[in-house]
Structures are given as structure tokens and as C-alpha cells.
Design goal:
The chain has helices at 21-26, 48-57, 125-134, and strands at 2-8, 34-41, 73-78, 81-87, 92-94, 104-110, 116-122, 138-141, 153-155, 162-169. The protein is α+β, with helices and mostly antiparallel strands.
Length: 173
């Protein structure tokens, strides 16, 4: 099992710090206001309430956030599925449908298809590497290309969480 804890980046800049879910929804909740303050992988199964107790009363030494409280978010991964929970005034609110992981851009030189640079948007470097391996002869490297305007995007399939953008043809000579 893996879990992550997210807390507001700046409590003073949001109206919903330490507020319940209903209030937060009405006052502009956005996951962009949050930063990850802790991440852990464990062989022990634990519940949201277990995590709440630990991060309120027995903080791990490497935890740098405030005690887990209302308006904090816990993401839990079981198997291959992530679920996102908002710490509400009483209990937890499943907000998985409100959270869309940001994709990062990675550049792949796909030599097998006429030296075409392929920009891949993926949720992680691991996903980008997997996508590069699917391109015959793909050579993975992260150019840190930032926010470019891309041309046409070809999806791997309807359920894929990786986008390819064929951006630039390179003369290999």
C-alpha cells in the first residue's frame, strides 16, 4: 500500500483552509492549491483513520507538515488504483473524481519512424518510459521541454493515460 498527504501551500491565500468539504466546494476548491508533504509505501494495510491518528499524535520524524486536519488530502494506492480523500469536518470525503493528475512532458527520439521526435505526456517518468518502449527503437530522454503548444495528438488507445505528440522531424545527417 502507498499513500501521500497533501496540504494547502498557503493557508492565507485560500478561503477554505481548515474548512469542511461543502464549504471548500463553494469557495473555489482546486487541487492546484495543494503541495505534497509526505509519501510512504508500506506492506502494512492501514485505513484513513489509522493515517489520521499517526499524523496527529505520532508524527514520523521525516514528516514536515502540520498535524493532519480538516482540508488536508490523503491519496491511497491499493493495487494500481489511486483514491483521493478530503479530510472533512467529520470523516472523509472521496474526491477522486475531482482530482486529475497532471501529466508531464517527456521527449522521445523514435528512430524507427524516420527520426521523429515524439513528445509524450504522462503522469510519471515510468509511464513515459513504458510508452517509449512501445515505439520500436524509441530512445527515452527528458528534455524538460516545459509548456509548448503542440500539434496533433495521437492517443495510445481510449483508456491510455499517455499522449503522444509528433512534433518535429529531424534530419539524421
Amino acid at each position: 500500500m502507498e499513500f501521500k498527504i497533501f496540504q494547502l501551500k498557503n493557508m492565507r491565500e485560500t478561503e477554505y483552509g481548515f474548512m469542511g468539504w461543502d464549504f471548500s466546494k463553494r469557495h473555489g476548491f482546486t487541487f492546484d492549491d495543494y503541495k505534497k508533504v509526505y509519501e510512504m509505501e508500506t506492506d502494512t494495510e492501514c485505513t484513513l483513520d489509522d493515517i489520521f491518528v499517526v499524523f496527529n499524535m505520532k508524527h514520523p520524524e521525516d514528516f514536515r507538515g502540520h498535524s493532519l486536519s480538516v482540508s488536508d488530502i490523503v491519496a491511497m494506492k491499493k493495487g494500481n488504483e489511486w483514491k483521493w480523500y478530503y479530510c472533512d469536518s467529520f470523516g472523509w470525503e472521496d474526491i477522486t473524481d475531482r482530482i486529475k493528475p497532471k501529466k508531464k512532458k517527456f521527449r522521445v527520439l523514435a528512430e524507427a519512424i524516420s527520426y521523429v521526435y515524439v513528445d509524450i505526456e504522462a503522469e510519471s517518468e515510468e509511464k513515459a518510459r513504458e510508452a517509449a518502449e512501445e515505439l520500436d527503437g524509441g530512445d527515452f530522454h527528458d528534455d524538460g521541454i516545459g509548456d509548448w503548444e503542440f500539434g496533433s495528438v495521437a492517443r495510445l488507445d481510449d483508456d491510455a493515460d499517455v499522449d503522444y505528440t509528433y512534433d518535429e522531424i529531424v534530419n539524421p545527417e
